Amino acid sequence: LSDPKAELINRIQKHAELRDFTSAKRKYPRGSFCINCTGDVCRQDTVLFKQQIPQKHNNESNYPGYRLVAGRVVKESYGVKKQQHTFTVEVIWSSGMQPLPPMTQLLVKGRVLYRHKTYRQKWPNEAERVAAVVEKHARGDEARSVRLKRLENKQSGRRLESKQKRRALGKWPSTRRGPQGRSSRPLPVSSRRGKRPRSGTGWSAGYKQAKKRKV
């Protein structure tokens, strides 16, 4: 921060204003959140959303509760490990089940933020918001491409691992060739006894041995 002392004084004054729920809701009324921004929230947005609160199962009711949260998005980013969109919301006021105190930093996944629709207040200059949204979309496209490559590499790694396991268990013939151009791997007697080997597999020697043992 350029001036930590001034920033700290500003936060103390802001907390004093929002400490009372009535005054906070009067300053940020529910009707002022009139723009539907579901799926398109950016940093510095003042949003209103409904958050689902899970309840423990009991004899009376097992339905989840809901909490209404009004807050300002102070940070949004895409995770490095899984490229999930995460928002940090600074709570202005909250109502419903388990309400949060003002100025609380709430970490919310994008799918949770957009689940029950999200509304925002109008910016003083909407052109600045358009630029912020364009920058966010560029980072989102980059994160999605990284995620797609990661999933493709993960799937190819799983296929290679499965192939190696099957070869180790003897379900696939070895790629090594004998002097006659056939695989030097003998036929697994327990698994192919009494069965004619497929042509071109190089298991004829093992099949003859199994037939002699049977006789």
List the helices and strands and how they pair.
Layout: H1 4-18, H2 21-27, E1 35-36, E2 46-53, E3 65-78, E4 85-96, E5 105-109, H3 110-113, E6 118-120, H4 126-168, H5 189-192, H6 204-214
Antiparallel strand pairs: 1-6, 2-3, 2-6, 3-4, 4-5
Please describe what this structure looks like.
The chain has 6 helices and 6 strands, in the order ααβββββαβααα. It has helices spanning 4-18, 21-27, 110-113, 126-168, 189-192, 204-214, and strands spanning 35-36, 46-53, 65-78, 85-96, 105-109, 118-120. The protein has a 6-stranded antiparallel β-sheet. The protein is elongated.
Query: Could you tell me the strand content as a percent range?
Result: 15-25%
In DSSP terms, counting alpha (H) and pi (I) runs of 4 or more, how many helices?
6
Helix content: 25-40%
How are helices and strands ordered from N to C? HHEEEEEHEHHH
Overall spatial form: elongated
Keywords:
alpha+beta; 6-stranded antiparallel β-sheet; about 220 residues
Short note summarizing the structure:
Strands 1-6-2-3-4-5 form a 6-stranded antiparallel sheet.
